[in-house]
Design goal:
The protein has 397 residues and is of the alpha/beta class. 33% of the residues lie in helices and 26% in strands. Strands 9-8-10-11-7-12-15 form a 7-stranded mixed beta sheet, with helices on both faces. Strands 3-2-1-6-5-4 form a 6-stranded antiparallel beta sheet, covered by helices on one side. Strands 13-14 form a two-stranded antiparallel ribbon. Bound molecules: zinc ion.
Length: 397
């Protein structure tokens, strides 16, 4: 009787996306456009009279399309289906991911229930290329510091910064500079965002925590370990222990400054001060700053430049003759940009080995720190960023 067996071929996500169904077309178009605009996220938000689709491009949101109330529920249902989320679950948070191999794109989808229906955010992850530190936009001194980390034989290097500050991307860029033929590199990530050829990439989850994965990976004889995030005491202790026993460990932590990384590890996660002092090789904090359009920028007025000068304690930050050529973004923008912005640049503050020891010994005055403000000034002097935005960094750091 086997003749009657009919096996229905499951449609791949690429096939589903080719459908002429109106809602699928809108979704397909939104993702294509978001990719073209280099958007980091797509927001699908139900509201009283419909559903709004917004893109976040270079940190700022703009509306791409709005659909009327009659389409609200059906559109959200379609997006949930296409993003591998359960349509049976309504009114509860959900996470999922979907990969479009033909577009070299991965979407990380997240739902929260709002009063007007499920509100969805899709994070766009370009899986088509490895992160290249050379193209990341770091100033040359920061770039050199980061490349030097790849030459270390052992120790702990920690990157911090708020969500969306690009710290994971930087970390991936550093790992990509490491010789993965001669070194065994294991990464523990949640989720895996960028491909690293030649590394063993492990995705952690509720079933496989960072600490469990780290303990297991130590038995695989790694030279270099990337721990996606230190978010609990156990992971902190294991990471420090791994660094103390001949491994080079890279990780991220939630902190606002390079010094706060140390206080978080010691005070919150109770890592032994003496042990941390001997293993910590690099501590940093990162932010992203708007890169201004070189077609439509305006010159900053001299009064603002004078205010900036007052804040700069060391003369060599910025030569005086540069003051007349400092730029601000043209918020009206032009055909080449979005409101005067063409992308974002990472700025980084860091403290390296010798100064880390000074921090532990309480020698605050002798700490050599490349701070965020100083790093932003380097970009300002080159005409890459807006004076007004640099002034804000000064206030917040
Ligand atoms: Zn422009």
């Amino acid at each position: 009787m086997t003749d009657n067996i009919f096996i229905e071929k499951t449609k791949s996500i690429e096939e589903k996306m080719e459908s002429d169904f109106a809602y699928t077309s809108i979704f397909r178009e939104s993702i294509k456009k978001a990719k073209e605009f280099e958007a980091s996220d797509v927001h699908i938000e139900p509201f009283e009279s419909g559903v709004r689709i917004r893109f976040r491009v270079f940190g700022k949101l703009f509306i791409w399309k709005e659909l009327s109330l009659v389409h609200r529920e059906s559109y959200i249902r379609e997006v949930k289906q296409l993003c591998n989320m359960s349509i049976a679950i309504v009114g509860k948070p959900q996470d999922s991911s979907v990969t479009f191999s033909n577009w070299k794109l991965k979407l990380r989808a997240n739902i929260i229930p709002s009063m007007d229906g499920d509100s969805i955010v899709l994070r766009l992850i370009d899986i088509g290329r490895e992160v290249n530190l050379n193209d990341s936009g770091f100033s040359s001194d920061v770039y050199t510091n980061l490349v030097q980390l790849t030459q270390l034989k052992m120790g702990l290097c920690v990157f911090s910064g708020p969500t969306g500050s690009g710290k994971s991307k930087t970390l991936n860029g550093v790992i990509n500079k490491i010789d993965r033929i001669k070194n065994k590199v294991i990464t523990l990530e949640n989720p895996i965002e960028y491909p690293i050829v030649g590394a063993t990439q492990v995705e952690t989850s509720a079933k496989l925590t960072f600490s469990e994965a780290l303990r297991a990976c130590m038995r695989q004889d790694p030279d270099i370990i990337l721990v996606g995030e230190i978010r609990d005491k156990e992971t902190a202790h294991l990471a420090v222990e791994a660094a103390a026993t001949g491994h080079l460990v890279f990780s991220t932590i939630h902190a606002n400054s390079a010094i706060e990384v140390i206080t978080r590890l010691v005070d919150t996660f109770e890592v032994d001060r003496g042990l941390l002092k001997s293993v910590l090789k690099f501590s940093s904090a990162q932010r992203l700053i708007s890169k201004i359009c070189s077609e439509c920028f305006q010159l900053a007025n001299l009064e603002d430049a004078a205010i900036l000068r007052k804040r700069i304690s060391e003369k060599w930050y910025l030569a005086e003759e540069k003051e007349e050529s400092l730029r601000v973004k043209n918020t009206h923008g032009c055909q080449h940009c979005n409101d005067g912005v063409i992308g974002r640049l990472p700025i980084l503050e860091s403290i390296a080995e010798r100064s880390i020891i000074d921090v532990f010994e309480g020698e605050e005055n002798s700490i050599k720190k490349n701070d965020l403000f100083k790093n932003a000034i380097t970009h300002l002097a080159r005409g890459e960023v807006c004076l007004k935005e640099v002034m804000q960094i000064d206030k917040s750091s």
